[in-house]
Each structure stands twice: as C-alpha cells, then as structure tokens.
Hints:
The chain is mainly α. 74% of the residues lie in helices and 0% in strands.
Amino acid sequence: MINQLHLAMIELYKGDAKRIQHFCKVHSYAKLIAETENVDKNCQFIIEAAALTHDIGIHICEEKYGSCNGKLQEKEGPAIAEKLLGELGFDRNISERVQYLIAHHHTYGNINEMDYQILVEADFLVNIMEEGSSKEAAIKAYQNIFKTSCGKKICREMFGI
C-alpha cells in the first residue's frame, strides 16, 4: 500500500518535481529513522504514509491563499489526505492518524508520540538543506527538535554539528 500511495502522490504532484523530490526525501529519512528506532509495524506504516502525504495541502493552499505556509498546510491537508487514503483503501484508523500528523507537522510544542516525532525530524532534515539554512539554524533545530538517536545522528553528521 505504501508504494501505491507513493505513486498516487507522484501523480497528484505531476509537473512539480521540487515537491515530489521533497516528499520522497522526507519519506526516505522517516523510514530510516523509524526502522532504526525499532518502531512496530503499525507505527512504521503510519510514519511512511504521513511522510509521503505531509505536504498534500500545498497546491490547494497556493490556489486558495496564494501562500503555502505551514499553518495553511495543516488546515487544508487532512481533508485531501482523507479522500486519497480512502480511495486507496487505507484503514480508517490509519487514515485518521495520518490526517492528525498532517494537521500538526508544523506544530512543535507538544510532540508526544514517536510517529509525530519522526515525521517532524525527517521534515526538518530535508527543510534545513532545501532552505539553505545556516549551521546555527541546524544547531538550534538539533537542540530543540531532534529526540531520536537516529535523527540526531543524521543531523549531526549531515550538518557537521
């Protein structure tokens, strides 16, 4: 099912190579971190589905608001994900959790579950690089966001911390 979702997201984002590359990279890091942290199969599945769909609201935000900031993505993304996941036959409980993660992936104050933590870490790893953030910004993210051993290791090594 993850591969079906991956292909469906590529189709949904056709013509937007930058965004396709983004969610593919976030998925790759999320999968690596989750496997290294030994999460259970259900959590792994949720993490991978959320990583692929976390920015699913970007295009509608650009159309509706002329902006795709994180809070707008959190607002618009879950409904689009619900429809796509339903069409692909995802279990309702899985879909609801993925929607929750989409609705909170730019909210960092109350990260209380491993799937949420890993999604945020994977997105940060990619965003720091894509946005050309300074080493100081990477250090700040490392200190304030990263909690998993694997995520911290990747961040340290990638950004020379």
